[in-house]
Amino acid sequence: MSATAATPDQSSFLFGSNATFIAELYARYLEDPKSVDQSWNNFFSELNDDAREVLDELRGASWAPNTTSVIGEEPTPATKPNGSAAKSNGHANGAAVNGAAPAVSAPAAAIDQDKLRAATLDSLRALMLIRVYRVRGHLQATLDPLGMEKREQHPELDPKTYGFTEADWDRPIFINNVLGMETATLRQILEVLRKTYCGTIGVEFMHIQDPDQKAWIQERIEGGRNHTDFTVNGKKAILERLTAAENFERFLDKKYTGTKRFGLDGGEALMPAMEQVLKRGGQLGLREVVLGMAHRGRLNVLANFMGKPFKAIFSEFQGNSAHPEDVQGSGDVKYHLGTSSDRDFDGIPVHLSLSPNPSHLEAVDPVVVGRVRAKQIQRCGTLPPTDESRDEVLGILLHGDAAFAGQGLVAETLMMSELKGYRVGGTIHFIINNQIGFTTMPSYSRSGPYCTDVAKMIQAPIFHVNGDDPEAVVHVSRIAIEFRQKFKKDVVVDLFCYRRHGHNEGDEPAFTQPLMYKAIRAHATTREIYAKKLIAENVITPDESEKIVADFYKKLEDEFEVASHYKPNRADWLEGKWAGLEAASGDDRRGNTAVELDVLREVGKAISAEPSSIKINSKIARQLKAKAQAIESGEGIDWATGEALAFGTLCVEGTPVRLSGQDVGRGTFSQRHSVLVDQETEERFIPLNNIRQGQALYEVHDSPLSEAAVLGFEYGVSLAEPHELVIWEAQFGDFANGAQVIIDQFISSGESKWLRMSGLVMLLPHGYEGQGPEHSSARLERYLQMCGEDNWQILNCTTPANLFHALRRQVRRDFRKPLVIFEPKSLLRHKLAVSKLADFGPGTSFHRILSEPYELVADDQVKRVVLCSGKVYYDLLQERETRGIKDVAIVRLEQLYPFPRTSLTRELSRYKNADVVWCQEEPRNMGAWSFIDRRLEDCMVAAQIKGTRPLYAGRVEAASPATGMLKRHNREQAQLVDEALTVK
């Protein structure tokens, strides 16, 4: 395009004061294209989508003042034109500029339509260009500190794309105070845009659909408050944090050369960035932060952010334990450990806790978010957490770039961020973007341009920033915490940096990235670059810069000297909310789980009464009547009722209950119905929250279709709140396989590795009913294989009463252990799998072993004892009754771990002349057999019974957990039951 210049006043007249005229003309065109003159019809029809979007915005909120005219009235410009603008010789997009005036009243028709269309098109194209820089400017930002990333000019950021030519660069264009200018030349516009969106900060926010959030970020980025407004003291503080971060790593490298530490070297700007979150966050109400991160930079975070004593870290490098001598457990490597501390900024204290985590990258993400949720509830005492409590407690997650893009737990955790039962008011994500994953370059490790692309699924704002510009890093960190506190949404800071050493300090990275590491070796450190900048600005002198380094290095030497004599203080794992709890000890740990009968009936009445406020499903109404009858008679309490009685009695005693998982409100097998739904309005009613005034809350959340993230979240809740019964239920037990990392690395081993107790309950539907390999086995063998050091409890119950007591004892003992319950499926409605109300009342408790309940021959005449666990008991019982067998006893092992050695030995000693058979439904290489074989043999020897080796009755070894053919299943089931009952 070429055009003679119009003065700013002329441009204002031609477009600004006629904005409403154009907007309303466009609105008329959209309603009926034939209602406007053909020349305007052509003009509007030939605009591209971006120009149409600008016009749509114009229709909704005109750029012109409210006093602007409407069609049929003469526009009144703010400043009268000094002359008429010359006509343009051509326009992009083929838009028409000639033709008759549109069909409007005489005053508006008097406007020079050609000039108005030309000026309109100029402004539209300029605004389109501005908008595209907001969308795509980050693609031209200078983000890579090493300068190795080759970024080609994006065509949409080129003015030529919009029809501008060299002749147009210095011609004023009306942009109505966008970018803070009423009119500006193309040169001025591009200068501002490139400085704002293509510097060392690249921001992605135009994918956000919420107009307030988008406008806030736009104003924050364009509004003049940029990263050049730091005070002298602020700049010195940044330099001091960079100095601490860099020289801590150098000191470790010097003292422990080649030792793995996964240093922060290259990403030191993270430290002042995180401190800015605390400083600004404290001003905005922040009082507590829960952090989660993997290896890279962890020791630096522990020392320079969390305040862990340097001497403690040096002591661990010398091979000493991080735990006090009197604390048992395996411990863990130093770059997995967590800690807690208090920091003070401007007189505002903020409590920090860094969650320990394993080498399984990103596994800690949902755990942190769950802890945050629990802490927010503790602060406000209500559900859901209030905005105030969300202001006070924040989760910060530190990620690696390759892990953020590659690990599914990241997406799962993000996906939960706005769900009612899991939201925490936003998490701040820092990505330590080393631009490499171990030895894999980004082009091989992800499909998108950025590792952060997954965060767009929740419309989170993303700030990419060059790690060698620490002021820019601190600036976006301040924006991040302000955004989170205002909008309660996740936000991502993508810190582009590099990894000065290899994957660890003993690795040789030049094997696979010789060019990158050649550049790194020649590249000055972030601190060196920033110190030179401050010296050039006369903020500090060279001597002052050196003194900052020398002072910090002396501090490290002093700490190193005393490290060999350092002794950890007592463990802090039983303080705060955990005060009053103890480490588990002893064998028989029943707890006080019995409940008075009048309380049981009160709860029973509440859970079986048909609510008057909603219209329930007729089938459920029948179930409630049956439940009420069972409560009244005290007979036939089924599984779901036993569970509900456990939940309800805890709630009336003041202990909250939280249950989440896929479809847990109704229950996978339509057994629970703890949420009743109005059949006309879908209003929800929860009977367990309507027992009595002042009771604790029963939370029940149908979770998203995720196992790993949801289970991790619930584990996090249980870490922060020991006085709540926290339960996760798998839709089928088999599906817990998708959360195996959480189970292996946190739930089963967290107490031993990190001194972190948890009372989390996992409910895993398990049992062979011929439904195929993915709906039969919860993989009992996997959980049993991980048993050791009294780490958790594994149950396979057969009665509702035992379930009741098992659930209640989780929060009625003076210690906490994870509990894995293998739940039944067919037993949910089995006529024999019921309990009496008296079995829940005074004098009752959980039984790890259930003896033979029926009258048989004398104990010394029993020929066989069949030992089993779970649902197969009822198959054995029914077949024994059918055959009329009286000399085969069936003993149920309700708790498999901790293994009840003493009780089982005592039970077996009754049957001195019997052989012992272990019966299970699972194949021989699965289930409990491998776990129980030798333990059972020890008990038989101790009981001095006839046989010294247990026999096996069950399915043969198999690769798949179960057959998918019902006939084959029935044949196998009949065979194993026959083998168990037939005495040879």
TrEMBL record:
One of its GO terms (cellular component) is oxoglutarate dehydrogenase complex. It comes from the Bacteria. Keywords: Glycolysis, Oxidoreductase, Thiamine pyrophosphate. Residues 65-94 are annotated as: Disordered. Residues 637-830 form the Transketolase-like pyrimidine-binding domain. CDD domains: TPP_E1_OGDC_like (cd02016). Residues 79-91 have a biased composition (Polar residues). One of its GO terms (biological process) is glycolytic process. InterPro entries: 2-oxogl_dehyd_N, 2oxoglutarate_DH_E1, DH_E1, KGD_C_sf, ODO-1/KGD_C, THDP-binding, Transketolase-like_Pyr-bd. Its cofactor is thiamine diphosphate. The keyword Oxidoreductase applies. SUPFAM superfamilies: Thiamin diphosphate-binding fold (THDP-binding). Its EC number is 1.2.4.2. Homodimer. Part of the 2-oxoglutarate dehydrogenase (OGDH) complex composed of E1 (2-oxoglutarate dehydrogenase), E2 (dihydrolipoamide succinyltransferase) and E3 (dihydrolipoamide dehydrogenase); the complex contains multiple copies of the three enzymatic components (E1, E2 and E3). E1 component of the 2-oxoglutarate dehydrogenase (OGDH) complex which catalyzes the decarboxylation of 2-oxoglutarate, the first step in the conversion of 2-oxoglutarate to succinyl-CoA and CO(2). Belongs to the alpha-ketoglutarate dehydrogenase family. This is 2-oxoglutarate dehydrogenase E1 component.
